[in-house]
Amino acid sequence: MGFNCGIVGLPNVGKSTLFNAITAAGAEAANYPFCTIDPNVGVVAVHDDRIESLVKLYAPPKIVPSTIEFVDIAGLVKGASKGEGLGNQFLGHIREVDAIAHVVRCFEDENVVHVDGDVNPRRDIEVIEAELIFKDLETVEKKLSDAQKRSKSGDKQTKTEADFFTRVQQHLLGGRLVRYFATSSAEEQSLLRDLHLLTNKPVMYVCNVHETDVMRENAHVKGVKEIAEKEGARVAIVSAAVEAEVAELPSEERGSFLEGLGLKESGLQKVVKEGYQLLHLITFFTAGPKEVHAWTIPKGTTAPEAAGTIHSDFEKGFIRAEIMKCSDLTRLGSEQAVKDNGLLHVEGREYVMEDGDVAHFRFNV
């Protein structure tokens, strides 16, 4: 698994159309609010040219790319926390996601109604953020109530927890996202992490533009980028309409179709790229005549930890890692050629994995 991503946004911003296109999961899409009444889940393979290069070298019977899970939530509207619309009841489904993709409408089209009457990305973002804050308040207030009841017994730990939850509650009541909340200890960081609050998750804004704007930044996109820059968020510019067309084409025709529009990559690839950067993820590979496998890990992962993503025994009994760079392997054409050129490196427990490493782990259990 690469990462999982919850998709949120107002009705009619192109969420379900985009979800359909990039996951081929068959989510319902229509030109009216609240057409999505269940959280749709789709898992897609991450396209990576490096896997294709390794497959050409090894011709394995099994290929395992990284994958991303998308969870599409019904369109939220102002007042969702008070029962308006359908989206609020499904927000719990994205408690466990790694990141949130906030689809923002950045196109004008009088034939596609906007739930608030006109296109205004800044206002739309504020509406969604407010509803996420309200949902987080529900979570925190339940935890606070429970901690306050338990603290009556005089237990110092529960009193500390109640005080912490009170601070988080006041932060949210001030209209602020939890990712800007300052913790003062490792214990508080752990308490906050265990809450799985929606406003504490990394965000990427997916600007849905008209197909004629996909190669440029219109005024709406510029406004979203200004917001993202202040928040430390990422931005991907896509056209859900273009992605829908791409999804209907045979795979061998998609590249030339995108090139005809002046695009080097699909919207999915843009979202994946931004998601990996947002979450500070990299990819390493294991490769051989039986299997080529892509593994997604956080930047800073050591060789034993990377081995542990394959199997816990690999980490427990780690001896060493034999590392080749995918670029060297595909350029030289074989493992033997890499060795002959002195480019296979034997690394120990302190080695920090790099994006594009091809690893063979030696272990003993």
Detailed description of the structure:
By secondary structure, the protein is an alpha/beta fold. It has 13 helices and 12 strands. The strands form 3 sheets. A 6-stranded mixed sheet has the order 2-4-1-5-6-7, sandwiched between helices. Strand 8 and strand 9 (291-298) form a beta hairpin. Helix 1 (15-23) runs parallel beside helix 7 (240-248). The longest helix has 31 residues, at 121-151. It is flat. 38% of the residues are buried. Mean pLDDT is 87; it is low at 25-37.
Kindly list the characteristics that best describe this protein.
flat, 365 residues, three-stranded mixed sheet, alpha/beta
Overall mean pLDDT stands at 87
β-strand percent reads: 15-25%
The biggest sheet amounts to: 6 strands, mixed
What strand line-up does the widest sheet have?
2-4-1-5-6-7
Poorly predicted residue ranges: 25-37
- From the N-terminal CA to the C-terminal CA, the straight-line distance is 26 Å
- Tally the beta strands: 12
Structural class: alpha/beta
Percent helix: 40-55%
Radius of gyration: 23 Å
Helix-strand pattern, N to C?
A: EHEHEEEHHHEHEHHHEEHHEHHEE
Shape: flat
Number of helices: 13
